[in-house]
Design the sequence.
């Protein structure tokens, strides 16, 4: 057990960090506050990710044959931490490099890889994730958006909701039903968002402009070649995807930075002295570090070739606790920063509300931990 | 960075498993508050696990692993203080070793008994042999440790260890011990809720219980990792954070676990109390959560002068 970074890992981190520093515009914090899916952020993310691609820092953990440098999962998490620490300047493209790309690499056809991977590795693509529906959120397997075969095509009808990035995305990673039955009847289609019959409506949100949407599918015709994997194979594929996504969002890095900055601010004001305040700040720091180490433990296992399991749910829940603890500290002790302070604090506060929902609700993570880590008897239904 | 166990660490834990096996259920047979075992103590002294820090290539993480593994037993065995302090106590030091906080002289001291070695940590670090009559020893108290109080020093000698180093070792050991106790408590609680049937189902199928146990799992995992990192670095901030998280989590899980055991958790038949009553005492060590949090803050954000630099451990 070794808690030190190698020299190579440390210099990779400083390379990432200085690239970010050299690429962010002077008004970066205002930009980030607009939300990860705003049109200005999406436009900036395209140029930023293009620069990362040129520096070999967009997909360094992918294999060399597909635009990566073959670096290991430590580099992936170092990269993600440095991105999250400043508020994730990759915008929605973080999904491409974390799980959409790796999922296409593992399950896609040659044609799908040739079509979709190059724009990802160039930093140009933006995807949205067509998962939740009005009647299928945490109970995803009950989704009803239907894909009916018609000759060489599928015809898709239904509705998705709370879809991030849908307003500006090029392609949708769409879950739809091709047969009755719970999870076994679900299939993935890769659907260009300019396909006739798709209507997107923005939902005003707490996280900023353009973050969540309703997406309607009315007789949307999609060729069968757009299917990822076999019919009915969606469940196994998205399980792989979600494990990757949970590891790729180190919110604790942003939370820890927000905590350090709020303490620095309180210190400048001579207001970091109350014993309860000190205790609460340390508690939030402990939670950030516990989440960080739980994530590192998963990376260690992945590098050793061990299968990913429910530990990612535990790390994810630890991250939620950390994120909330920091947000509460700031609200309690320096509430004014959310009114007139640096936009950084507003951005952190807006994103903290999502921590328990994105990539699977916190309660679903607890269910997974209870069944798969603690091996408690299955829930009563 | 690699958080997997080394082959050597795996071998040590496997060997410890062998030593622990005969004692896993031994405490349950006797209706007592504190389960001690002279056999286990002799086995530990004989096997050399208490001197794991004397082997430099094993490192202090291995020491924390030994503490954590043995704390999972329902027994109260003095391990943490010996493992963390024996290298500074001369050749073949006596057993057990006790730790006392000079700033809280009336606080119960675990394993305090005549003849034990007492390390007292305040402005300086001293060591003394507990003299006859100098320990108000109470084996039948409400904590699942043998405890005593040693308010006055008896012929203390200085120890070649700074206050900060001593505090870091105490906190890292405490965090590893609490992590092991909490893991043991979680395991016996999960076993109970899987077996106990009410309303025609194991009570572990009910979400009100599952979610709280799952949250406890996340907390216990955090206790483990923060303790291991604290042991690895013996850094003042890391060790204070690990102690804080251990003490904080202990307050959150002790009553939940008893609640899930229902009346069974009130009996002396079930081993849960051997875990939870040890945790209760650890919650208050070194000034408790407030002091651990203040100490961590003084190290993490050193803009502020700590009120008591010695006990903050970040002078």
Sequence:
């Amino acid at each position: 057990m070794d808690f030190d970074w190698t020299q190579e890992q440390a210099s990779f981190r400083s390379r990432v960090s200085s690239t970010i520093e050299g690429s962010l515009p002077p008004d970066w914090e205002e930009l980030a506050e607009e939300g990860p899916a705003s049109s200005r952020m999406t436009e900036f993310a395209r140029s930023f990710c293009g620069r990362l691609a040129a520096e070999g820092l967009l997909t360094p953990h992918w294999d060399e044959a597909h635009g990566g440098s073959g670096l290991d999962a430590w580099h992936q998490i170092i990269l993600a931490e440095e991105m999250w620490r400043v508020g994730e300047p990759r915008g929605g493209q973080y999904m491409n490099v974390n799980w959409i790309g790796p999922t296409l690499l593992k399950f896609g056809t040659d044609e799908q890889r040739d079509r979709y991977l190059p724009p990802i590795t160039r930093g140009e693509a933006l995807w949205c994730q067509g998962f939740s529906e009005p009647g299928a959120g945490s109970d995803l397997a009950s989704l009803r958006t239907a894909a009916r075969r018609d000759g060489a095509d599928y015809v898709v009808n239904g509705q998705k909701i709370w879809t991030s990035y849908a307003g500006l995305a090029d392609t949708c990673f769409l879950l739809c039903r091709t047969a009755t039955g719970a999870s076994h009847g679900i299939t993935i289609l890769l659907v260009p968002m300019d396909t006739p019959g798709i209507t997107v409506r923005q939902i005003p949100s707490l996280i900023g402009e353009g973050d969540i949407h309703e997406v309607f599918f009315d007789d949307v015709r999609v060729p069968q070649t757009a299917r990822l994997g076999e019919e009915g194979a969606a469940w196994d594929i998205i399980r792989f995807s979600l494990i990757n996504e949970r590891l790729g969002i180190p919110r604790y890095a942003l939370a820890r930075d927000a905590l350090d900055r709020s303490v620095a601010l309180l210190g400048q004001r001579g207001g970091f002295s109350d014993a309860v305040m000190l205790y609460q700040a340390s508690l939030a720091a402990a939670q950030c570090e516990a989440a960080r180490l739980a994530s590192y433990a998963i990376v260690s296992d992945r590098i050793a070739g061990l299968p990913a399991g429910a530990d990612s749910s535990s790390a994810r829940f630890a991250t939620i606790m950390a994120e909330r603890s920091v947000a509460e500290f700031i609200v309690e002790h320096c509430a004014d920063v959310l009114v007139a302070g640096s936009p950084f604090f507003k951005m952190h506060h807006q994103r903290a509300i999502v921590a328990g929902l994105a990539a699977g609700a916190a309660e679903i993570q607890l269910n997974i931990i209870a069944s798969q880590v603690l091996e408690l008897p299955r829930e009563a239904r | 960075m690699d958080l997997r166990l080394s082959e050597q660490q795996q071998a040590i834990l496997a060997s410890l498993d062998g030593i622990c096996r005969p004692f896993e259920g031994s405490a349950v047979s006797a209706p007592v508050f504190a389960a001690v075992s002279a056999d286990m103590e002799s086995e530990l002294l004989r096997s050399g696990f208490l001197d794991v820090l004397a082997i430099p290539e094993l490192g202090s993480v291995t020491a924390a692993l030994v503490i954590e593994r043995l704390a999972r037993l329902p027994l109260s065995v003095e391990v943490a203080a010996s493992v963390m302090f024996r290298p500074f106590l001369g050749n073949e030091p006596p057993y057990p070793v006790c730790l006392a906080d000079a700033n809280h002289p009336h606080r119960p001291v675990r394993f305090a008994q005549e003849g034990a070695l007492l390390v007292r940590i305040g402005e300086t670090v001293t060591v003394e042999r507990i003299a006859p009559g100098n320990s108000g020893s109470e084996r039948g108290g409400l904590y699942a440790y043998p405890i005593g109080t040693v308010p006055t020093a008896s012929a203390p000698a200085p120890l070649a260890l700074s206050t900060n180093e001593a505090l870091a070792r105490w906190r890292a050991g405490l965090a590893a011990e609490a992590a092991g106790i909490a893991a043991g408590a979680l395991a016996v609680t999960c076993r109970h809720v899987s077996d106990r049937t009410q309303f025609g189902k194991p009570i572990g199928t009910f979400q009100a219980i599952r979610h709280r146990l799952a949250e406890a799992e996340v907390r216990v995992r955090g206790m483990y990792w923060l303790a291991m990192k604290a042991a690895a670095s013996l850094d003042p901030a890391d060790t204070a954070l690990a102690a804080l998280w251990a003490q904080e989590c202990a307050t959150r899980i002790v009553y939940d676990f008893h609640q899930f055991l229902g009346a069974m958790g009130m009996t002396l038949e079930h081993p849960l109390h051997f875990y939870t009553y040890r945790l209760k005492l650890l919650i208050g060590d070194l000034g408790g959560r407030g002091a651990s949090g203040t100490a961590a803050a003084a190290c993490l954000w050193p803009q502020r002068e700590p009120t008591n630099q010695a006990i903050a451990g970040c002078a």
In short: Chain B has a mean pLDDT of 91. Chain B touches chain A through 54 residues (CB under 8 Å).
